[in-house]
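Residues determine shape. Next comes a sample protein:
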Amino acid sequence: MEFVSVPKAQSGDKVAVLSPSFAAPAVAPAIHEQALRRLWAVTGLVAVEYPTTRRLDAPAVERAADLNAAFADPEIRAVLATIGGEDQITVIPHLDSRLVTNDPKPFLGYSDNTNILNWLWNNGVPGFYGGSTQVQLGPGPHVDHVHEVALRAALLTGERLEVTDPGESEDIGHDWNDPRALTEFGRRERTEPWSWSGPARSVTGRTWGGCIEVIQWILTAGRFPTDPTVLNGGVLLLETSEELIPAREFRQILRSMGERGLLSAVDAVVVARPPTSDFTVQRTAAERRAKRDEQRDSAFAAIERYNPDAVVVVGPPFGHTRPQWIVPYGGTMTVDGEAKKLFADYR
């Protein structure tokens, strides 16, 4: 795959804040408004909303029209998703690829936004996995340091950063309708060290992947090249959502990806720390650790089966976790199995 260079924004530029899936700002406007204030404070970028940003149940064609309008507007220098959802796959057919190749600009999102990121990837436009305004910017007493650093790198500065463990993590925050959601984080716990497998070598490659449940939808819809060698030498990003799929299902999807040839093509795999609780499923600390360990073991076993030469790390905080690192999607990352370090290039 050939990828274009995507210019960075500058302080004072306009950026689109859209809801390509679920319009979370419609149900929690106070969180949304705080997110926009913090976006300005952290980056100096001016948020521009579109007709469906706060509109629940907007048709896919109208959400796509907002995306197309943002990609077409030369004054818009980046596009940020408010949150994910579960039906963005229906938006993709209505997007105009000419717009993103004529004027490429960063797109930030995760979860269901794997659909848009994969579509951009197929058109040779890199993006960034992470950065939900409604989850990462709006709630809590402040923006987490690692998220702020990654956000600025993705949108403004473009440097190379080491992805580090912030030492704490939460699966969920307070309910958005709880006033504490604006001033407090959720229940956080200390993180455990990342786990590594594979040879003690360093791999630098272009990234692809995302939320594994959405990857399965993308592959079923035939929206990925038939030739898996497009991933040769790359870095596969994998994470699971708040759906809390069991390790057995995670392993089965990985097995299917292995049979497709995707696991054998890449040189490294980065598996995120998974969420293990939600508002209805509350587990003890020991149970949460056991769930994470079970998914880690499933990842190691599946990847070893199809690609024993891959460098694998499990535990970095991207995707459905807070604090969250935003990571390149179609950009490059370095997975150093010898030094046990992870680096992201935000150019």
